[in-house]
Amino acid sequence: MLSQKDNEQLTRVGPGTLMGDLMRQYWLPVLYTWELEADGAPKRVRVLGENLIAWRTTSGAPGFMQEACPHRGASMFFGRNDEDGLRCVYHGWKFDTEGQCVDMPNEPAESNFKHKIKAAAYAAADWGGITWVYMGPRQATPPGLPEFEWCKLPEEQVHHAYKGIYHCNWMQTLEGDIDTSHLYFLHGRLNADDPAQYGVFHKDKAPRLEIVETEYGVLYGAKREEEEGKTYWRTTQYLMPIFTMFPGTEDGFVPSHMYTPIDDNLTMHWGLRWHPSRTMPGNRKLVQDIHKVPDLNGMGPMKPKQHGRPFADWWCVAELGNDFLMDREVQKTKNYTGIPTIRLQDAAVIVTMGAIYDRTQEHLGSSDVVIAAVRRALLKAIEQVQAGQEAPGLLRAGSPNPFENFVCTS
Question: Is the model's pLDDT at 396 over the cut of 70?
């Protein structure tokens, strides 16, 4: 179990919090690049407890700035995307992607007031089909973008499969991802001979774990016994601060997840897969159909655009209010949950813990050692940053790439 103090440190991500300070050392994924059009409509986003406006300039550069205009606090969501600047509709003040006011038409022409006004804005970059934000203190010289293999491959070799929002803290979502012992229960089918669409199956449901701490996170292997003389190992990597990566499939595809903290109580979940050397076959669009086999990993369809909310297009139809589309008959006869997809099965257990579960009440067993290891790694990273040291796994110009050798192949 965690102490109340450690639980607070790990879960609170707003400005001035310890985990918030750690998160702000890294680039974080926020939107797909196609969601922001040059000279298109700005979008409301919320990251690490901060309400921001995302937009793309006439020349194609992405930007993130505070939602409230520095003049009178009007929302820049209503702003006009205007010739490489975002212009507030209240009085016409215009800002560039660095937050500098570049035009103040309601002030006299001879005034230099605009040069004194700067909105909070953060470094932004397009990388691997995603628009990222860096919200840390080194805005002039941010760290290098994470050199994940999928970021550097041709888009034909990458499938951005799904994105959606979980109604709980980011640590609950992450810990569900790195917990291997739940795999053949929560995501399991009841009968080995049933089709794979009903879940995974393995006789050995009590894995033995081996853990290796890395300079960028934690690697572990889960050992399960199969028939005599044969052992099944499943490896998983946790990568600072919000990334996970799983074993390559038999045909060489590598899956990965990301967990962007929206605030203390909401998390953006991403899923993607890639092939290191081959074009991705078939349709590479987002998976939104929960009934299409074998696309059973997604979060299902999204609600109609949620006007007035951040990430307006990414709120799932399946939620606590409809029991995540649970079918009790399927649960009786086919799988453990009766819930249609892996991601929604995860949602059912992590969301019903509450926004932030009180970890002083939990009781960890031997199969939970990786969860304890990741918590220790994060708490240690918090201490490093508070002591003025570099956060683990950052990539800076001229430094070796800590991610260079973590590629998982079949």
Answer: no
> Following DSSP, what letter does each residue of 263-328 receive, concatenated?
SSS-EEEEEEEE-SSSPPPS--S----TTSTT--SS--PBPS--TTSSSTT--BS-SGGGGGG--H
Instruction: Check pLDDT > 50 for residue 405.
Output: no
User: Distance (Å, rounded) from C-alpha 366 to C-alpha 197?
Assistant: 30
Mean pLDDT along residues 175-188: 89
Averaged confidence pLDDT in the chain: 91
**Which residue in 262, 245, 272 sits closest to 177, CA to CA?**
245
Specify the pLDDT at position 169: 98
Residue 236 is classified by DSSP as: E
Amino acid residing at 89: V
Compute the chain's Rg from CA coordinates. Answer: 22
Question: 360 in helix, strand or coil?
Answer: helix
397, amino acid identity: A
Helix (H) and strand (E) counts in the chain: 7, 17
Q: Is residue 331 within a helix (H) or strand (E), and if so which, with residue range?
A: helix 328-333
Which positions ≥6 away from 230 have C-beta within 8 Å? none
SS3 assignment, position 77:
helix
pTM: 0.92
pLDDT of residue 88 exceeding 70: yes
